[in-house]
Amino acid sequence: MPTLALEWLLDGPYGLVVALVIIGGGTVLNYLRTRREKMLSFRVRFNSRLGFDPPDAGNVVRLIGPDHSEIPDPGMVVARIKNVGRSSITEQDYVHRLGLTFPGADRRLVTVDVTEARPPDLQDLLTGEGFEVHDNRIILPKVHLNPGSEFKLVALLEHTSGTGKPEVQTNGILRNGRVFLDSDGRRLRRSTLIGAALTTLLAGALVAVLLVGLPGGRQEDCAEGELTVSGSSAFADAVRTLADQYMAACRGSKITVEATGSVEGLNNLSSAPEDDRLNRLALADGRFDVNGEFPGVEIAGTLAVVPYSFVAHPALPIEDIPRGELARVFKGDVANWNQVTLADGTRGPDLEVRVVGRDTRSGSRLVIQRILLDGTPPAGITANSCAAARTEAAVNAPIICEVGSTGAVIDAVAKYEGAIGYVDMPNAIDAGAAVKQVKIDKLGATLDDLNRGYPIWTVEYLYSFGPLAKTGELTRSFAGFMVDAEQADEIQKEGYPPCVQPGSVPQGLCSKGN
User: Fold this and answer.
1) For position 323, what pLDDT does the model report?
2) What local confidence, expressed as pLDDT, does residue 299 receive?
3) Which of 167, 169, 203, 374 could be disulfide-bonded to 101 (CB atoms 3.0-4.6 Å)?
């Protein structure tokens, strides 16, 4: 079922920032940790004027419109529209087109533009179709959005002054879908948000005076060029969010995030051509012996704690498994759940075991091998696919299959009865009712339980080729942006405890390097 999630930000009388997300797919429970059926939530991520408060009072932003006259009381809209679900949203899904209205006697839209479309051809399509722009209202086109497709909408308003926060209203209906306003939104730092909003304005307004901050609060923190970040599929979405923020604030930058798996990300970095490897970073779940396996690669920083949750088919009547029994399952020692003793001392159901593991490119697999299995490799596959029956050579073994990504684990576990697998905690939460989380010795993969001894977690490491100080300018700049305490809230909103918390307080678990 296609679902439209809409999230907006309001600032003071001078500005307005709105973010929209379109979600396709049947499962929207626990989206960003707050999804509930038929639940509409509103969020405020930013609340400030475009002008700066004391001690910088008097530094203001003036905008000159296309007719060369000054725009009175300017406001800004930055809208992000993305299909992050598993099914396409077609033109036929729009029963009534989505619209944004900005109430107010004098408020008026000056310009509207589209930027940063993925795939790039989508921008040409949207520009060709255009938007219906009325005095204080935008009507979006009925555009086909495949899973992962996205674009950003940038608009300029005038006459946004007044008391209280500027109001925004939405309308629109999706066939078999709903509008979802996310109240648990990510918070951008003030300087980054203002910089992003104004620097993405491509609709013809001329900036006469522009005193805004960029990442780190200084323009020299921005860098131009292209950068590729590859590795952990578990943490890739969090880094994509940070990359979007950086690119919005630093217009000359292009950052591509590839969810290849930790091992392949490190391989890509180590084996990249000489003229390319200094413009690359790798994400890996856990610390790797880079000296032996990946020549030239060095740790560039730590990003967050990554807890892993064991997820099972929702119909599997198991809530809690002792650590030793769970290890037996992933070693391939049991073929039926009735061979497993649960935490309450009872036996599991009479149902064949189906283990969904990750392939050898996965850092998650290595975490499970190192911590749960005490260094013993997981059992080898016994079936050609997760759907296949056992081969003749594995008649007395469980069905064991391997997949290449976090999303594929969730899909397989949700589909096959008796299945169990492992994914990072935020993705387990995002899967909602499609899977169930299984505790280990009465502990779950929450931060509180990690501190109480939940064992299956690691640290997300950032790797560069050679010392970070000797890499490309954009590589250094974006790496510094990610590990800065200013991004702690953003990483936390993605579900990962950041290694550097707000106020530059270190996360104790990161120093343990599990």
Assistant:
1) 96
2) 93
3) 169
Q: 244 vs 154, 248, 261, 322, 504, CA distance in Å?
A: 14, 6, 21, 41, 23
218 sits in which H/E element: none
Pick the CATH number of 219-305+461-512 from 2.40.50.580, 3.30.470.20, 3.40.190.10, 3.65.10.10: 3.40.190.10
The dihedrals phi and psi of 25, each to the nearest 5 degrees, come to 125, 165
Q: Is the peptide bond before 119 cis (omega within 30 degrees of 0)?
A: yes
Which helix (H) or strand (E) is 254 found in, with range?
Answer: strand 253-259
Distance, first Cα to last Cα, the chain: 39
Beta bridge partners, 53, equal: none
In the block, residue with structure tokens 């590729």: 228
CATH 3.40.190.10 in the chain is located at 219-305+461-512, 308-457
Q: How far apart are CA 337 and CA 212, in angstroms?
A: 60
Residue 73 identity: D
Provide the residue count of the chain. Answer: 514
The helix (run of H) or strand (run of E) holding residue 197 is helix 190-199
pLDDT at 151: 73
Least Cα distance to 243 among 120, 85, 116 occurs for 116
Determine phi and psi for 114, rounding to 5 degrees: -115, 140
Q: Could you state, in chain order, the average pLDDT of each consecutive group of 10 residues for the chain (514 residues)? A: 42 35 33 28 30 38 60 72 66 74 75 76 70 78 75 73 58 61 38 42 35 37 92 90 88 92 93 94 89 88 93 96 96 94 94 92 90 91 80 71 91 95 92 94 92 93 94 94 82 87 73 70
Backbone φ and ψ of 306, nearest 5°: -115, 100
Structure tokens at 163: 């008391």
DSSP tally for the chain: helices H, then strands E:
13, 24
* Cα–Cα distance, 264 to 269 (Å, whole number): 8
**Which pLDDT value is given to residue 505?**
65
Neighbours of 469 (CB within 10 A): 8
78 touches 154 (CB < 8 A): yes
E strands present in 102-219: 108-118, 132-134, 137-139, 150-158, 169-174, 179-181, 206-209
Closest CA to 444 of 431, 427, 425: 425
- The identity of residue 174, as a single letter, is L
Give burial (CB, 10 Å; 0-12/13-18/19+) of 203.
middle
Tell me which fold the domain 308-457 belongs to. Answer: D-Maltodextrin-Binding Protein; domain 2 (3.40.190)
Q: Which of 512, 78, 424, 402 is nearest to 236 (CA)?
A: 424
